[in-house]
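Lab notebook, bench 4. Still working through the backlog of constructs that have no structural model yet. Next entry is a single chain of 248 residues. Request: give me the structure tokens for it.
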Amino acid sequence: MDLFKQGKPKDKGDDLICRVPLTEDERRQVEKYGYVPRMSDITWRIFRIMSEFVEGFQFLSQLSKEVTILGSARTPADEKWYQEAERLGRLLAEGGFTVVTGGGPGIMEAANKGAHEAGGNSIGINIQLPREQRTNPYVNFSRGFHYFFTRKVILAASAQAYIYFPGGFGTLDELFEIVTLIQTKKSEPVPIVLVGKDYWSGLFARIEETLLKEHKTISLENLSLMTIVDSAEEAYGLIQNSTERTFF
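Model written out:
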């Protein structure tokens, strides 16, 4: 089955075809009813995207001193990095920071839990996924998104620091997005802290050896944008030192 939208040509001889991947809701419509969305549906999708941006930035305008924490949704509560993320969330809340996560389980839940139990602002920027993602019970304020790219913009829009715990493709995607924005000066330089030396050191040794030295596709200062630490206390110290001139 072709699960792509196909626009109707304006004129009989016009062979213009507009193809856009279907959402999960639209995919179910096609499978159940044989319904193929029309060009007008693409227009409404654009309005939905616009509304997610508008509502997302309105949501962010209510926050201050945000620190975004990202990591795997699959990390169990008895695992070391869950406990470190929980401790970091608590330290940040006690220091007056707003803890922002993707709002789901795993590392995100841990950071929200620490902030919530410390009486701080615990924020979730959630995404609708077929598995893994749910809003964890420690989020005080949340905003849900249908599109990954609108959610990524909101997660990257205003934090004073970004913390990355061990994670999968989504975590890596979000990390390199922020590094690219800062590298190209599209975003202000802010701390990028990677927690977990065992997890991150091998990856960055390979990046240094292959990208920097062998192929020369990055420069040495690109690597200096990120700092690898091994504990919540180290991460918090870096954030506090980098922001105290602005906030304290």
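Notes after review: The chain has nine helices and seven strands. The beta strands are 66-70, 98-101, 122-127, 141-145, 161-164, 192-195, 226-229. Flag for follow-up if needed.
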